[in-house]
Design goal:
about 45% helix; about 260 residues; eight-stranded parallel β-barrel; binds phosphoenolpyruvate; 8 strands; alpha/beta; 12 helices; globular
Length: about 260
């Protein structure tokens, strides 16, 4: 059984100093030889400091966003080429990027390519809004986001891709999805990836759930077959709470 993957997305919280203190605190709560893969996505400003501070066996790092070109006159942007050596993972198409900053599937596709081209691991975030859910459009939305995001990803590269199902209505709202919602989305996503790449390859793609995950509900998702981990926002901001989510994944691994 592969290790569960637990990612903490700090969004625009915790400055460099706070980030460093957090990592210090978390490293005392999580064993170094961990049977869970723990990834932290801090502000870009903290990546350099944290990349020197973390023990790679204990934690890995992710960027929350990336630009799709490798260099050039793109004021304010950060490329995957610049992230190499600092992070192992990059979030692509997070719903806040899509809905607050207007990122389209075309942007997401270009970013996915840039991440893969630079040998980093993309975490493709997909999920429907409350309205889309109410209109029974979830399958359709997931289909478009997956097809759009993966359009130029080869069969070789897809094996490394992580897909996070993050229903927009569940992000930061405290209204987490029911496990049966996740099961439905999992089946849609797996079916879609299978139709693009075949079953053997599709099985290797890791699938995460994200949306108001807490220490209390984490185990319900982790217990579902075909769910490989969690993308955690608010509950990752306190080291002790995040450590309890990681602990749920560790005990799940031992039972599974
Ligand atoms: C997220 O930022 O991806 C997320 C899932 O946030 P939250 O856990 O706060 O809902």
């Amino acid at each position: 059984m592969s290790k569960k993957l637990i990612i903490g997305n700090w969004k625009m919280n915790l400055n460099v100093h706070q980030a460093s203190l957090y990592v210090h605190e978390l490293s005392e709560k999580i064993p170094e030889h961990n049977d869970v893969e723990v990834v932290l996505a801090p502000t870009n400003l903290a990546l350099q400091t944290l990349s020197l501070q973390v023990k790679r066996r204990q934690f890995k790092l992710a960027a929350q966003n990336v630009y799709y070109r490798d260099d050039g006159a793109f004021t304010g942007e950060i490329s995957a080429t610049m992230l190499r050596g600092l992070v192992q993972y990059v979030l692509v198409g997070h719903s806040e990027r899509r809905h607050i900053f207007g990122e389209t599937d075309k942007d997401v596709r270009a970013k996915m390519q840039a991440v893969v081209r630079n040998e980093l691991i993309p975490i493709l975030c997909v999920g429907e809004t409350a309205d889309e859910r109410a209109n029974n459009e979830t399958k359709h939305v997931l289909h478009d986001q997956i097809t759009g995001g993966l359009a130029n990803i080869s069969s070789e590269d897809i094996e490394r891709v992580v897909i996070a199902y993050e229903p927009v209505w569940a992000i930061g709202t405290g209204k987490n999805a029911r496990p049966e919602d996740l099961e439905k989305a999992r089946d849609t996503i797996r079916h879609q990836v299978t139709s693009l790449y075949g079953e053997a390859i599709a099985k290797k793609v890791r699938l995460l759930y994200g949306g108001s995950v807490s220490a209390d509900n984490a185990a319900d998702y982790l217990a579902l077959p075909g769910v490989d981990g969690l993308l955690v926002g608010g509950a990752s901001l306190k080291a002790d709470v995040f450590a309890s989510v990681v602990e749920k994944a560790r005990s799940q691994g031992r039972e599974g």
